[in-house]
Amino acid sequence: MVREMRPAIEESRAQPRAYTPNHLVQKILNSRSALVGERKQVTVFFVDVKESMDLAERVDPEDWHRIMDGFFAVLAHGIHRFEGTINQFTGDGIMALFGAPIAHEDHAQRACHAALHLREQLRLYAQQLRRVYGMTFAVRMGLNSGEVIVGTIGDDMRMDYTAQGHTVGLAARMQQIAAAGEIYLTAQTAALASGFFELAPVGRIRIKGVRQPVQTFALVKVGAARTRLEASRARGFSHFVGRADEVAVLEGALSRAISGFGRVVGVAGAPGVGKSRLCQEVIDRWRSEVLVVAEAHCQAHGRSLPCGALLDLLRSFFGVSPDEGAALGRRRVRSRLRHLFRAVDEDLPLLLDFLGIPDPKRPLPAMDRGARLERLFAFVCRLVQTQSAAEPLVLLIDDLHWIDPESDAFLAQLVEAVGRTRSLLLLNFRPDYSAAWMRSAVQYQPLQLAPLTSEAADELLQGLIGAGPALGNVHAAIKERSEGNPFFIEEIVESLPWRSRRSQTSVVRVADSVSELRIPATVHALLAARIDRLPHSAKQVLHAAAVIGKRFSEPVLRLVHEMEATDDKSPAAPATLGRDTDAELASALRILQHVDLIHPVPSAPQTEYAFKHTLTQEVAYSSQLQETRARKHAAVARALEAVHADRLGEVTALIAYHWEAANEPYQARQWRERAAS
Q1: What is the 3-state secondary structure (H, E, C) of 113-163?
Q2: Would the CA dihedral through 257, 315, 115, 533 be positive or negative?
Q3: Do 47 and 28 fall within a single domain?
């Protein structure tokens, strides 16, 4: 954007009398590349100091500068802890984004966690300021979730990455109406955070610039649910369908483990396909059979918490909660260890310190972090072996693709230790997770989880919205959109405008809403997060493929990719352009197949690929700006003409479609007439 805008700006500077500001603005707006950015689903976070001007007037300017410097330091630490981005300083506060520049499938939850964390940290900071300056320092916060345009704005003297749109304005309004010490959310954020946090309704409030009163909530505290599965359980699980074969495989693995042949089973599958639900179903069954079970649930924002997964696993094993008293926790740990060992282990101080309940009578000896982790890992492996010698043990690590690096290093040791025990280590993860031990551990058994069959999807839908002839088209439409993904099915049903199913009238009204099916915000965020974590070149190829369509041929994609590369690269090195783009494209296609976003189409006349899921293609397409898509549609039209030059009659209608999507009516009309002739 900057490169193409500069001629207009430089021309303005060279001839200042010839250009008015309005003339310059119009020249920039007319540029085809006036915008560089993406459409993203985010949560926008505003925080500021209540009555900051009054406070600033009471102290020396240097003191106020120190106060605000400390304030911003607290904010930066809290926002970055949950991987948010501070994109604007507002003088007495900040604006932050969760879900941009990198998309997060849990952006609303991260923003809420950050807000609660900051409220507590700023409360402590305010106490210090009251003691030193005698002032009442209070903040207010506002959050809103929705679609924004994110990217760089400004000129070549100053460039800012920011978000724009109605979503931003409404978040700012939430902050402005919040009382001191309060965190206000819109209904959009509340819907995404419900179950994970305790919310208090504030009511419908009239907001300047918004036509209808805005349903507003106050964020109170963290809720009981930590994972999406726990939130689903709280509101009532849907029917568990279509997984009899997979359950049988897991039961067989457990039987072998109990017989003394320790097993590690890795359940792999796409997001939403039901990995966590499958594991939880068998775990609940085994726990009811009085098997010893310990489980850890990796969090999307937990990669920055060292040993977070290991800590979760040990807390589950010992039955220790971070909310209970340290003395009670220590008693539980000692009791469990005495049951397993004849004497309390010498590593007890290390264990208690790691669990956050150190014994003041037996402090941990000084040692460096590396040595401490080495001893801890060895102790836990020995603990697992000792437990399984007494009675069989099942360990679950859920959502392994989010595991922190230290816990991942421990897992490699645990896999080796499990092979010599009566233990089953059950893991689940997405296709983009891999580890070296998977290729070498003889006790490792992979289990690939596929989407639901058509019959199983029908059974799930019957439990969600009922059955009957009037709902036949509803089932068909949802199955087509979800392609057998149970999470997608549930979220699409939840997003229907009217979901009550208590009468025949409800059946008709649900049927009428089939035409209104859209990608739910939860599904959109999940898929966008996967796309954003791709390497840049792979993401660019995926975006180009999304414009071509659900299926795309490699020759067409290659030409489109080369056209985009030519636009982006200097013409000084055209000789290497073809070789570079070919290698880049081949690498990108391998990555996209590895992470299970696309797959080759067998028996195609030329090398052809298809998106693994239609909704992935829709999200990759819709996240691009309209003018970006238009430029790519034009490139696709030209590529189709070149690739199919000897049989244009087969693709004339398709070429016309792409020229129309490129906002080129003349070209589109020519090809439509050609298709009709």
Answers
A1: HHHHHHHHHHHHHHHHHHHHHCCCCCEEEEEEEEEEEEEEEEECCEEEEEE
A2: negative
A3: no
Asked whether residue 76 falls in the same domain as residue 172, the answer is: yes
pLDDT value of position 500 = 43
**Residue 492 shares a structural domain with residue 548:** no
pLDDT band at 470 (very low <50, low <70, confident <90, very high): confident
pLDDT tens digits, residue range 16-39? 333 333 433 343 334 333 345 899
So what's the pLDDT on residue 479?
92
Last residue of a domain, one of 501, 518, 535: 518
Query: Token digits for 7?
Result: 């001629």
Residue 519 carries which DSSP code?
Answer: -
Residue with tokens 């289990």: 447
Tokens, residue 247? 């359950």
Question: Which residues touch 593 (CB under 8 Å, ≥6 apart)?
Answer: 599, 600
3-state secondary structure of 393: strand
Among 410, 425, 448, the domain boundary falls at: 448
Q: Same domain, yes or no, for 470 and 501? A: yes
- Asked whether the CA dihedral 479, 483, 485, 487 is positive or negative, the reply is negative
Percentages helix, strand, coil for the chain (3-state, rounded to 5) are 55, 15, 30
Split at pLDDT 50, 70, 90, the class of 677 is: confident
Residue whose C-alpha is closest to residue 546's, from 610, 596, 478, 626: 610
Tokens representing 38 are 């993406």
User: Running DSSP on this structure, what letter comes out for residue 611?
Assistant: E
Domain of 155 in residue numbering reads as 36-223
End-to-end Cα distance, the chain: 41
Phi-psi region of 632 (alpha: psi -120 to 50; beta: other; left: phi over 0): alpha
Examine the domain organization and report whether 24 and 59 are in the same domain.
Answer: no
pLDDT of 35 reads: 43
Task: Give residue 343's pLDDT band: very low, low, confident or very high (50, 70, 90).
Answer: low
Confidence (pTM): 0.85
pLDDT at 167 over 90: yes
321 domain residue, yes or no? yes
Copy the structure tokens of residue 629: 């898509």
**Residue 230 in domain:** no
**For residue 65, what are the CA distances in angstroms to 10, 59, 91, 511, 535?**
37, 10, 11, 61, 41
How many residues in total does the chain contain? 677
Looking at the fold, whether 186 and 101 belong to one and the same domain comes out as yes
Residue 502 DSSP symbol:
S
User: With pLDDT > 70 as the criterion, what percentage of the chain qualifies?
Assistant: 88
Write out the DSSP string of 210-222. Answer: -SSPEEEEEEEEE
The whole-angstrom separation of Cα 291 and Cα 601 is 45
Q: Are residues 582 and 554 in the same domain?
A: yes
Same domain, 412 and 488: no
Of 602 and 567, more confident: 602
Total domains, the chain: 5
Each residue of 444-453: b (16+ CB within 10 Å) or e?
bbebebebbe
pLDDT at 7: 37
Instruction: Read off φ and ψ for residue 450, nearest 5 degrees.
Output: -95, 165
Cβ proximity of 265 and 447 under 8 Å: yes
**229 in a structural domain:** no
> Which CATH number characterizes residue 50's domain?
3.30.70.1230
Task: Confirm whether 231 is domain-assigned.
Answer: no
CA distance 413 to 98: 35
Q: Average pLDDT in the 500-519 region?
A: 55
Q: Which of 155, 232, 141, 238 is nearest to 195 (CA)?
A: 232
pLDDT at 6: 34
Query: What local confidence, expressed as pLDDT, does residue 487 receive?
Result: 95
Give the CATH number of the domain where residue 276 resides.
3.40.50.300
